[in-house]
Design brief:
Blueprint: E1 3-9, E2 19-21, E3 30-34, H1 39-49, H2 59-68, E4 72-76, H3 80-89, E5 93-96, H4 100-103, H5 115-128, E6 133-137, H6 147-161, E7 165-169, H7 175-183, E8 188-193, H8 212-227, E9 232-236, H9 240-249, E10 254-257, E11 264-267, H10 269-272, H11 290-306, H12 323-334
Parallel strand pairs: 1-2, 4-5, 4-11, 5-6, 6-7, 7-8, 8-9, 9-10
Antiparallel strand pairs: 1-3
Helix pairs in contact: 3-5, 5-6, 6-7
Amino acid sequence: MKFLKKVFYCAFGIISESICLRLQGDPGLCLQLPENRGLAEQIQIIKERRWIMVKKKSVIDFITMKKKGEQVAWITAYDYPTALFGEQAGMDMLLVGDSLGMLVMGYDSTIPVTMADCIAHCQSVRRGAPETWVIGDMPFGSYQTTDQEAVQNAVRFIKEAAVDCIKLEGGQRVAGRIRAITDAGILVMGHIGLTPQSSGQLGGFKAQGRDVNNAREVIRDALAVQEAGAFSLLIEAVPPEVTAFIARKLHIPVYSIGAGPCDGQLLISGDMLGQFKIFTPKFVKQYADVAGVTVEAFKAYISDVKNGLFPTDEHVYHISEPLEAFEKLFSEFDS
């Protein structure tokens, strides 16, 4: 039997050369179907055989990818559409970062972001990407005070937003928090190097580990995070030489945002899409100019409206009864 068409799990209907559909109860689909079958018959085949070949990655998958040298590609996502597009593109993970404070809410830092903000955005991302590993970022003030509060807030992420793990910033100083959260049965991703929540103590948004003494502390932080039980580690704005050593030294996956090659790469979606124009970090590669496209689209719309070019006949709904009947109706209100 010859196979040509592929069915992918998504929510977009038909795209490119593939038939795309969402089936209630099927967590993910990626299979090949006979080209001589109609769409309805193909769907019935899926329902009967329930060939599920695409599924959300697990912690075991990420460890295996490290061992095999397979890179993990992930971005931040803060809303339903971005999550939807990320899952369609095949992102390995999505981080609902506290960077939403700057990119979505307009704050000048991540400090004002609350648990309620993070939970709400995680819920939106989960709805958009039900089959992608989602990381909830614990905001400033949600884990700094006590182990008990840290665990309670981590539990909220799992229960209320259905994330797969949480991320928190810091190395040696938060090892106790990481241990407490993992002891509660929750997966933790560490975050060291440039940690935005404590950027004031670091002297601003500055790269870390550039001299031997500072690099030693970064390495100690990495070892402390692993020892505390974290399943993975994110390193931000650290020289690639230091990052490469840490990735070799640790048995857990080590990911980078502006820290050079290791087990995978993270970028802020607003940066890589060209949405956030206030500043762009050195380590960002911009893959699109969404801001430019959006502004031009808005300008075109304004022009069309002001010049009477929108709406046109194709953009309106016409009456379903004779015009005379409506003229009679209108006259009722003119008398």
